[in-house]
Amino acid sequence: MKLYNLKDHNEQVSFAQAVKQGLGKQQGLFFPLELPEFELTEIDDMLEMDFVTRSSKILSAFIGDEIPPHQLNERLKTAFTFPAPVVDVTDDIAALELFHGPTLAFKDFGGRFMAQMLSYVSGADEQITILTATSGDTGAAVAHAFYGMENVRVVILYPQGKISPLQEKLFCTLGGNIETIAIDGDFDVCQSLVKQAFDDEELKKAIGLNSANSINISRLLAQICYYFEAVAQLPQEKRNQLVISVPSGNFGDLTAGLLAKSLGLPVKRFIAATNANDTVPRFLADGQWTPNATVATLSNAMDVSQPNNWPRVEELFRRKTWRLGDLGYGAVNDETTKAAMRELADLGYLSEPHAAIAWRLLRDGLQDGEFGLFLGTAHPAKFKESVETILERTLPLPDALAERADLPLLSHSMKAEFAELRAFLLKK
Ligand SMILES: *Cc1c(COP(=O)(O)O)cnc(C)c1O
After folding, report:
1. Can you give the pTM of this predicted structure?
2. Share of residues in the chain with pLDDT > 90 (%)
């Protein structure tokens, strides 16, 4: 597999390099040089396969001979150990639940696959530092995926006081090779600290820097697989006019969905759903890219005003000669999010703020004859406090959360200053 840097098309790397480096020069994102496409009959055959077998086929189409198919299949068996069920909500809308992994969010798919790929492409004695910023769920997925792996040090930055207490417990209580830093600032600030670290060649070399952010291509590729898994679960008549609504923050999930479509998965259109951090919906409405300051919302994993993956979305539309105007979009504020959660509860479906936003825009935008799917990106119990308050009921804690809820937090705190982060990374 060859990938090029979106900021400098002359910089081309292999899959292994892209996985190890995360970002290219000038913090450019890597993008596949070849965009594979399956024939319709191939897609039909694939939709009959089991999740892991089909996922191997999808990922092989991108990765090529850099990883022999049986090796890839073995790695996927280790990474994808939990289901992604489609659950009916109404006659014409269903949820794709992506939160049945160890840290109860869709990020387990990408985090676990990335851990497998990184260990596959790294030398046995190579020391690697994974540095990543999280708006809540990436941190947990990455921490758990890499926990206890030899030669890997994981450093996770998160915005202090801006993620849910249970989200924090899930990844800041592990210790060992997992170090967590609460940054005095918002997610965009954390993300920019990570980018500065990547710009620092000396630091990069000294600690073998890698990012597990959604900018890492391996995470994106893994996420393509569950879009196929969703369609595989739908009866034929619901596959033809399929609309998928994606709750979006950094826009990795949407990029993966669009890549699934580019492979030939029948999806009529996508809806990019955001909260009040609505840089993309405003851009799609008026063509102006004008990020506002990030605001804290109920759907905190989407509190991103400068979404990292957007250049990949634009590149894909350009390469496929799709029209950006065909991309659905919308932004939902906290009040409407709450109302949506209550409406879903009345329909018998327990949700959380992120999924509720995607559902709300889907319900409003669905046309006659279409079938809608929205992504359930996190388990409702991950947002226990707000879900309980909004729905006026108590939620039991799943085991993954219950077993960490009473452990002490091991996080460091830090001002949003690169010099301080740099010193931290270089020590030991
Ligand atoms: C990360 C996350 C999102 C946003 O996904 P992106 O790929 O960053 O757009 C949405 N919902 C939840 C629960 C998340 O953890």
Report:
1. 0.92
2. 83
